[in-house]
């Protein structure tokens, strides 16, 4: 079993079966979104002939929503999924932040006042920047100093009150979720567990249960319930002591040499607890220095992380610099240049590999 090739295929990096940003996001269940420019490229590299403007349009039209579901981390999710995902994942995330709220002196009474401020400021279809929301809180004598402002936003989003909405320059404004996203069918907790497990293993397989537990942020018990509900639609193969699960109907096409330039927080690497399957441990420090949670953009050759890359956007175009872990062959240099050009096409700008 070629785990890397199957993951590239199932994550839509080599297959590309969809044409719209919201379709890719729905297929993957959620896509890490803390690095906004990189997250847009994560969507774009999985679609044919799609530009940054196309992805922004899907966001501005409310088809793709940015909020804090899995692990309480910023993700892109499809509009029809945002409510049931928050219903499923928020209780554990909120409970896990109790000591943080206490340290920030954000008790239930203060958070209830914050909720009132958000509703008053945003109701009627209004959208405000983060700074404008902080100003509204300050006017209500609620401090946003330190990490208080961010935690208030996070808490309001986890309770399903707000989400990020239309873009403004390089950021997104904030809106009331119920005004920005049309009503969607309600799922039971059992249905939501099964749906999240199905999305994960079909889009990211071959993957293990520890991978799913880590990615979802669910308890081990709940993750197993979701997996058990959809297990009959999956196949698995044991490698060492681990069982890798994936959709039963996957047919891997003939493998050809490939190179991709992925953003730093792409699901190809971040969607798994164990990343050693595609990233040699000896090189992990180069991708995430000091394990500080900041991931460099990666060069992926034939499914393996083989280096990092950086880009500098100038008026005349984009300069891209590669830092491979080992010297690239002439053929791989050519393929890297082609992959870099794809990134330029996404931004509708010329690219120079330097």
What brief labels describe this structure?
about 350 residues, alpha+beta, Arc Repressor Mutant, subunit A, 3 domains, five-stranded mixed β-sheet, three-stranded antiparallel β-sheet, 16 helices, about 45% helix, globular
Number of helices: 16
Contiguous runs where pLDDT drops below 50 for at least 5 residues: none
What is the N-to-C order of secondary-structure elements (H for helix, E for strand)?
Answer: HHEHHEEHHHHHEEHHHHEEEHHEEEHE
Q: Give the domain tally.
A: 3
Shape label = globular
Q: Which percent bin holds the helix content? A: 40-55%
Mean pLDDT: 95
Structural class: alpha+beta
Strand content: 15-25%
- Annotation, overall tally of beta strands: 12
Strand order of the largest sheet: 8-9-10-11-12
Report the end-to-end length measured between terminal Cα atoms.
Answer: 37 Å
Biggest sheet features: 5 strands, mixed
Q: What is the C-alpha radius of gyration, as a whole number of Å?
A: 21 Å
Please characterize this protein's 3D structure.
With 354 residues, the protein is α+β, with helices and mostly antiparallel strands. It has 3 domains: 3-180, no CATH class; 189-247, Winged helix-like DNA-binding domain superfamily/Winged helix DNA-binding domain (Arc Repressor Mutant, subunit A), CATH 1.10.10.10; 259-353, no CATH class. Helices cover 44% and strands 18% of the residues. It has 16 helices and 12 strands. The strands form 4 sheets. A 5-stranded mixed β-sheet has the order 8-9-10-11-12. A hairpin with a 2-residue loop joins strand 9 (297-301) and strand 10. Helix 12 (209-216) crosses helix 13 (220-230). The longest helix has 18 residues, at 330-347. The model has no long low-confidence stretch (mean pLDDT 95).
């Amino acid at each position: 079993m070629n785990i890397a090739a199957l993951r590239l295929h199932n994550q839509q990096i080599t297959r590309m079966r969809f044409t719209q940003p919201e379709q890719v996001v729905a297929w993957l269940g959620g896509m890490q979104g803390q690095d906004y420019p990189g997250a847009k490229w994560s969507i774009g590299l999985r679609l044919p002939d799609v530009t940054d403007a196309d992805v922004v349009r899907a966001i501005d039209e409310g088809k793709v929503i940015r909020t804090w579901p899995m692990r309480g981390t910023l993700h892109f999710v499809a509009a029809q999924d945002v409510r049931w995902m928050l219903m499923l994942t928020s209780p554990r995330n909120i409970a896990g932040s109790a000591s943080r709220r206490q340290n920030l002196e954000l008790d239930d009474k203060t958070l209830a006042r914050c909720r009132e401020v958000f509703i008053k400021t945003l109701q009627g279809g209004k959208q405000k920047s983060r700074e404008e929301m902080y100003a509204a809180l300050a006017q209500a004598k609620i401090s946003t100093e330190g990490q208080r402002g961010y935690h208030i936003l996070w808490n309001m989003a986890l309770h399903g009150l707000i989400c990020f909405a239309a873009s403004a320059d390089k950021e997104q404004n904030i809106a009331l979720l119920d005004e920005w996203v049309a009503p969607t069918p309600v799922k039971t907790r059992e249905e939501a567990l099964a749906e999240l497990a199905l999305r994960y293993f079909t889009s990211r397989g071959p993957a293990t249960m520890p991978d799913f537990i880590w990615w979802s942020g669910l308890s081990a018990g709940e993750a197993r319930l979701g997996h058990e509900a959809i297990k009959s639609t999956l196949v698995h193969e044991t490698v060492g002591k681990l069982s890798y699960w994936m959709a039963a109907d996957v047919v891997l096409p003939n493998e050809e040499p490939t190179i991709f330039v992925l953003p730093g927080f792409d699901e190809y690497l971040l969607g798994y607890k164990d990343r050693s399957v595609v990233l040699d441990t000896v090189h992990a420090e180069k991708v995430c220095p000091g394990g500080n949670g900041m991931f460099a953009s990666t060069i992926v050759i034939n499914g393996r992380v083989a280096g990092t890359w950086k880009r500098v956007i100038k008026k005349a175009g984009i300069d891209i610099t590669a830092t491979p872990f080992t010297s690239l062959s002439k053929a791989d240099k050519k393929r890297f240049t082609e992959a870099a050009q794809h990134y330029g096409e996404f931004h509708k700008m010329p690219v120079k590999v330097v």
